[in-house]
Amino acid sequence: MYLTLNEAAEYLSISEEQVKSLILEKKIRALYDGDEYLINKDQFQTHFEQLEKYKELIDEYMKEPIPEDPDVKDED
């Protein structure tokens, strides 16, 4: 499925200018048909899967308890 520049911006939650900039930097693959850019939606699937994986890793890390430091001395 191909997206227009506007649809891709909405899908990625960024502005159209940012999408166009990413296309020009070759970070997003797109076809230019003479009128507008067409962007394949499937290229973002891996990106979103990796984001989910990183979110899970961060959640696991944040839930891990802080170990007690053996060098801390009771000063009372």
UniProtKB/TrEMBL annotation:
Pfam families: HTH_17. InterPro entries: HTH_17, SinI_DNA-bd, Tn1545/Tn916_Xis. Signal peptide: none annotated. GO terms for molecular function: DNA binding. Residues 2-50 form the Helix-turn-helix domain. This is Helix-turn-helix domain-containing protein. It comes from Metabacillus litoralis.
